[in-house]
Each structure stands twice: as C-alpha cells, then as structure tokens.
Amino acid sequence: MKAIVHIRPRSGVLDPQGQAVAGALKHMGFDEVLSARQGKIIELELGDDDEQAVRQRVQKMCEHLLANTVIEDFSISIEP
Amino acid sequence: MKAIVHIRPRSGVLDPQGQAVAGALKHMGFDEVLSARQGKIIELELGDDDEQAVRQRVQKMCEHLLANTVIEDFSISIEP
C-alpha cells in the first residue's frame, strides 16, 4: 500500500524558499508570478494492507518526524 | 489562477533524502515502511487567467528553473 504525504508551510508562516522561487521566476521574465510557496511530498511504500490502520500510522509518522506541525500543515492520501 | 507543480525524483534515480526518511521511520519503530521517496510541491499564484497559456508558461518555468529534468519528473495541475 502507498501513502502520499503533502507537507506545506502553514498560511501566514514565512516561506523563504517560496519567496526565493518567486523572485527568481520574476527575474527570468515570468512577470505573471504573484507569489510561490514551496512544500514537500513524501511517498511511502508500506507493507500493510489495512487502509484505516495505515492512515493512523502515517498520521503518527507526520506528527513525530515528517512534518513540523508548528509551522507546517500536512495531508495524507492512501493508494492501494 | 493557481498552478501546483509536483516535482519527484525520476524512478531509478537515487534518492538519498527518501532513504534517510525511510531509515529514520524504521528506526522509530515504523517497521512497515518499505521505502520512501521525497519530492517537492511548488504552489504558484499567477496573474493570468488563460488556462492554456498558464500551463505552457508553467511548463517553461519547470524546464528552466523549478525541476532538474535530468533526474526529476514534474506534473502540473491548474486551479482557477
């Protein structure tokens, strides 16, 4: 079973990586770029087939390691 | 208009970040983790409303700055 975790900076939290991306794109002539925010995707391959259990375990992985919940939001999607 | 760009290591390309994540999770007791791969999400806010044009421009942004197409794949989704 596969779990895909999206981790993004919380709205309102300063995102210097995103600002750097937006600045670089404007500098290259992409003037339509108003702003950018950068986050992470983590794809996990898991040896467990119970979707409910997998979701709970991945939630714990996010809280304990993958995301910094003070400044980041995360969402989990499970694929068979 | 909003464009969301997903950038992931190409399959077959070594992904040391993903390996570190998988190793750390196993070390913490998440033994069901078989492997992990880590990529990026970039959310762009764009001052242009033509979906076709936006997609072409974002494709160029990916090829020229956002993704390293030798080792990374990217996909673009557009939201109003």
Q: How would you characterize the overall build of this protein?
A:
The structure is a homodimer of 80-residue chains. With 80 residues, the first copy, chain A, is of the alpha+beta class. Chain A is 35% helix and 38% strand. The first copy, chain A, has two helices and three strands; from the N terminus they run βαβαβ. A three-stranded antiparallel β-sheet of chain A has the order 2-1-3. The first copy, chain A, is elongated and about 50 Å long. Chain A starts with a strand and ends with a strand. At the A-B interface, helix 1, strand 2 and helix 2 of A face helix 1, strand 2 and helix 2 of B. Strand 2 (33-46) of chain A pairs antiparallel with strand 2 (33-46) of chain B.
Write the layout of secondary structure elements.
2 copies of one chain form a homodimer.
Chain A: E1 2-9, H1 16-27, E2 33-46, H2 51-66, E3 72-79
Antiparallel strand pairs in A: 1-2, 1-3
